[in-house]
Write a structure and sequence with these properties.
Helix content is 19%, strand content 26%. It is of the alpha+beta class. It has 3 domains: 71 residues, Structural Genomics Hypothetical 15.5 Kd Protein In mrcA-pckA Intergenic Region, Chain A, CATH 3.10.290.10; 67 residues, 2-Layer Sandwich (Alpha-Beta Plaits), CATH 3.30.70; 152 residues, Pseudouridine synthase (2-Layer Sandwich). A hairpin with a 2-residue loop joins strand 13 and strand 14.
């Protein structure tokens, strides 16, 4: 008769052995797991098992690395053997369909990296009311891929360059570049009003909070705010148009909603921004009541350029993503200022 692997829990709450599972699993660590902590490796493997159970299984000694006990913070090396006890994972809710397989326009790809041109309206990952995003769809489309992870994030409403790693070593190296500000990230943004030519640097701290509906919201705060984080955006006017301005915004820090909040607090919100924009103006554009009868139904923020050092060759890579068709069409219809 199968027994629980965690004897300290009440019987009703214990993870139990699946009748179809072998007594144990012995997994050899490949590039997907190389360098990971043991706890993170197991939580990715045992989706649906509470974190508390994962840590108890490790402490109990049921999990072994190369036949020896290991701590939660043990770093796994290529070729290590991990003994995993047969814990039953949570079943998916009935009727929950898997993410549909989907490829996206590829801007660059080799054995280490994948860069795609993400369309607006697609989340980068599931969560917060979204069943799936880019990463889940790509994993379905590429079942042979042993490793595929997001290097960074883009807001759901933002289009443009999204970088993914195909090796853990590439993921670690690239994320370190993002943290140390060694990447160049430039966005095209169309804002309401005529941007002041003298405003080229925005150095305003940002503070993440929750609004009255429990949704994430970012506020500009004073530099000495105890929970504010410094954020710097460089702004360049690309083209002045009737009632709006096309900007290039290069971010020196990567704070949540940084560009959207910085431009809005300067008095020139991004056209179509549903969170920080002018809601009445957004509705007007969506109805086709914009300048020259232009109609526009998305947020005009596009990650158009990304520069970084290749994690294997150290070669400087600069990627560009063309302006989406709906954005280019809008720009072609907007007249110059009088």
């Amino acid at each position: 008769m199968a027994q629980s692997i965690i004897s300290s829990n009440p019987p009703a709450r214990r993870p139990t052995i699946s009748p179809d599972a072998p007594a144990v699993r012995r997994l050899v660590v490949d590039e997907a797991g190389e360098g990971q902590r043991l706890d993170n490796f197991l939580m990715r493997l045992l989706k649906g098992v509470p974190k508390t159970h994962v840590y108890r299984v490790i402490r109990s000694g049921e999990v072994r690395v190369n036949k020896g006990r290991a701590g939660a913070d043990t770093r796994l090396a290529l070729g290590d053997e991990v003994r995993v006890p047969p814990v039953r994972t949570a079943e998916k809710p009935a009727g929950m369909a898997p993410a549909p397989a989907r490829e996206f326009p590829v801007l660059f790809e080799d054995e280490c990296l994948l860069a795609i041109d993400k369309p607006a309206g697609v989340a980068v990952h599931g969560g917060s009311g979204v069943s799936f995003g880019v990463i889940e769809q790509l994993r379905q489309a590429r079942p042979q891929a042993r490793f595929l992870e997001l290097v960074h994030r883009l807001d759901r409403e933002t289009s443009g360059i999204l970088l993914l790693a195909k090796k853990r070593s590439a993921l670690v190296a690239l994320q370190e570049q993002f943290r140390s500000r060694e990447t160049g990230k430039t966005y095209a943004a169309l804002v309401s009003g005529l941007w002041p030519a003298e405003l080229k640097v925005i150095d305003v701290a940002l503070y993440k909070t929750l609004d009255t509906r429990g949704e994430r919201h970012v506020l500009p705060v004073a530099a000495d705010h105890p929970e504010g984080r410094r954020a710097i955006s460089l702004v360049r006017i690309v083209r002045a148009l009737s009632a709006c301005t096309l900007l290039d915004v290069t971010i020196k820090t990567g704070r949540t909603h940084q560009i959207r909040v910085h431009l809005a607090q300067a008095g020139h919100a991004i056209v179509g921004d549903p969170k920080y924009g002018d809601f009445a103006l957004n509705k007007s554009w969506a109805r086709g009541d914009g300048p020259a009868g232009a109609r526009f139904e998305r947020m005009f923020l596009h990650a158009r350029q990304l520069a970084f050092d290749h994690p294997a060759s150290a070669e400087r890579i600069t990627l560009t993503a063309a302006m989406p068709a709906e954005c280019a069409t809008l720009l072609s219809r907007l007249p110059a200022p009088p």
